[in-house]
Amino acid sequence: MSELQAFFQLADNYQLQGYQWALAALAALILGISKSGIKGISIIVVTLLALVFGGKTSTGILLPMLTMGDIFAVWYYRRHAQWKLLFQLLPWMMAGVLIGVWVGKDLPEQIFKQGMAVIILGSVLMMFWWGNKKDKKVPDQWWFAGLMGSSAGFTTMVGNLAGAFSNIYFLAMRLPKNEFIGTAAWLFFIINLFKLPFHIFVWETVSWQSLSLNVRLFPALALGLFLGIKLVEQIKEKAYRNMILILTALGALLILLR
After folding, report:
1. Mutual orientation of helices 18-35 and 208-231 as an angle, nearest 10°?
2. Domain range annotation of the chain
3. Are 47 and 251 in contact (CB under 8 A)?
4. Which of 46, 61, 87, 91 has fewest C-beta within 10 Å?
């Protein structure tokens, strides 16, 4: 057996059933659509992978796929980043990541999973509230960047769930759609690379086994990237987001009760 074949077979160690492979592939597909610019739906990816792999393990499985999606998003929207706003948020997010590393390192899996479910539900409620808020004016002072950035950093480390906080921050800055997507793409590309050593050496959730699984799921991710490009200008976003948020909330309840 060649080394390449042995690498691909490492994914079999997860001993997934057919429906679990289907859920993992669906998560990769939705992730690709999200990274193409359909914001607010990646939360369901976290829910699906947590249902299949458990809380902490799923964060390490998702991170390399997030990074692959980031690379595409950075390339496709490379001309639209607002670097000043990015660097206002970045240091706070890094601080939040470090707090998340410390808090999550020795948490038992059950508590980690329950905490992830609570964060998912909180993010869903936050996005529902924001979407139905008539006055969308929010503070744009330095403390607001600190609050949103540190919250985003913490939640992205413990559950890859920073979207709700970073989205509200960028909305507060009144960014046009492409600049919103481009700035967020660069931000999460940098943050996900920053998180990677902690997942490898501290939490040990990224391994050759998880990378083998990532390679198997890459075709679904690539298809999602293609579909996302086609959908980004056509989709009726509010109804779609509400449907996704409802399904995600139900998934979070399943994680909590499982």
Report:
1. 50
2. 3-257
3. yes
4. 87
Characterise 199 by phi-psi region: left (phi > 0), alpha (psi -120 to 50), beta (else).
Answer: alpha
Residue in 121, 188, 122, 185 with CA at minimum distance from that of residue 157:
188
Are the beta carbons of 99 and 153 closer than 8 angstroms?
Answer: yes
**11: DSSP letter:** G
User: C-alpha 121: how far from its chain's center?
Assistant: 15
At 253 the pLDDT is 73
Q: Span 200-218, mean pLDDT? A: 95
Q: 142-147: long-range contacts (C-beta < 8 A, 24 or more apart)?
A: 142/88, 144/169, 144/172, 145/88, 145/89, 145/92, 145/169, 146/92
The model carries a pTM of: 0.83
Torsion, Cα of 62, 107, 20, 121 (10° steps)? -80
Count of C-beta atoms within a 10 Å radius of residue 42: 24
Q: What's residue 125's pLDDT?
A: 77
